[in-house]
Amino acid sequence: MITVYHPGGWFFYFQNTNLGGLQMKKLFSLVFVLVFAVVLTACTSNDYATKIEDLQQEIETLEQTLEATESNVLALESTLAALEGDMSVLEEQLNTLEANQYDGTIVFTLDNENNTNTVEVHFTESEEKTVFELLTETFDVDYDESDFGVFLNGIEQMHTSYGNFISIEKNDVSLTTGIDQATYEDGDHFTFTKSWWDEDAKTLNDSLQLFLTNHKDAFISESDYFVLTGLYHLDPVTGEAETPLESANDLIKQIIALRSQGVDVTSHQEALNDGLEMGHLYTASLAVLALYDYEHFDASLYLEMINIDAVESASLDTLSLMTLALDALDVEDQSIMDEIVNRLSSGDYNHPYGQNSVTYANIITALVALDINPYEVNDDNVNLVDQLLSYQTATGSFMYTNAEDLMFSTPQSFLALTALELYLNDGQTNVFLID
């Protein structure tokens, strides 16, 4: 009989038989493996128990740390509340001291659409300051002077543009005089509000703001050259130098995007110019807009492509870009320009691909470069601007026809509306020309 013991107290045995030596060895090997496995399992269980204890200890430590942190936060909040209370008391004391020092107080409120700023201003009668003088001492004011008095162009972040002005109320009643002639006494309240006299201009402004609020950052991160070009004129973005891209099409877009961000693109223009091949008129026109200010650019190959047949046969999108390229090159071929004007302003567009936002956007961008007001050009008895705006979604993006299109329609429509905004304020505008 063979007996095998385990340190845990158990044992087993084998009854001796007539097994041969080889079989007996195999039997011993199996017994050894079984014993080793059981011992290993016991040891592993002990390791798990130790790990569980360690983790439980870590959890307890973290819970203690969390409790301490929460206690500190509560203490800080209590301290902050106390400081805010002290500040309120000090402000009241300061107001009392100022009231004793000054003869009176008037209130200025800037109502800039979604942003309102109200400030109390104290005055001394002996100084005999006008409301306008008190205003300029309190805010950064942009204004013009004329024979009719002072005209306000802007106060702090409230700026006027085409279609609006700064209206002024005194105690909720519109002033009947200029701000420099207004009288006041203690307790008077003057409110300055941006007011619109042109509803089309207001609609345009609202459309641009809707896009900027909801989509600007995403298009900046994508380095969209249409949007960055528009932002150069409205809200410039600063960029960083990049290695020129290899593809000519990508390089064209890169040049336009970087230039609008204030980056020197001379090396990029050199790379494009050295390998430039004039192909389709649309791409060739875009290349001109990337190279128009490069001193070594020879536009003769492009100009050889421009003739009456090209103008008559080009799609409206290509014709619009061609118009901007010719304007950038200061081309003055009257017959060519007359035919372009006729096609773009006639309103007889046919729309081989159907009415869509991209075509309307491109036509608008070209028309303002030709000094033609898009509000005065109709398609299906609706002016081009209203046609384009009919494709804008509630978030400020644009549909191509009936579905949101962030790749083409949205950036090109934004650029067109930017060009229109510039046109209304400054006249003839080629939005691709960067100073």
Key words describing this protein structure:
435 residues; alpha+beta; Ferric Hydroxamate Uptake Protein, Chain A, domain 1; Glycosyltransferase; 5-stranded mixed β-sheet; 3-stranded antiparallel β-sheet; 12 strands; disordered N terminus
Structure, explained:
The protein is an alpha+beta fold. It has three domains: 2-97; 104-197, Beta Complex (Ferric Hydroxamate Uptake Protein, Chain A, domain 1); 201-426, Alpha/alpha barrel (Glycosyltransferase). The protein contains 14 helices and twelve strands. Strands 4-3-10-8-9 form a five-stranded mixed β-sheet. α4 runs parallel beside α5. It is flat, with a radius of gyration of 38 Å.
Oligomer: single chain
The overall strand count is 12
- As laid out across the biggest beta sheet, the strand order is 4-3-10-8-9
Domain unit count: 3
Tell the overall outline.
Answer: flat
Order of helices and strands: EEHEEHEEEEEEHHHHHHHHHHEEHH
Could you list the spans in which at least 5 consecutive residues all have pLDDT below 50?
A: 2-20
Helix content: 40-55%
Supply Rg.
38 Å
Structural class: alpha+beta
The CATH topology of the largest domain is Glycosyltransferase
- The first-to-last residue Cα distance is 105 Å
CATH architecture grouping of the largest domain? Alpha/alpha barrel
CATH class descriptor of the largest domain? Mainly Alpha
Biggest sheet descriptor: 5 strands, mixed
Query: What is the typical, i.e. mean, pLDDT?
Result: 88
- Quickly count the helices: 14
Strand content is: 5-15%
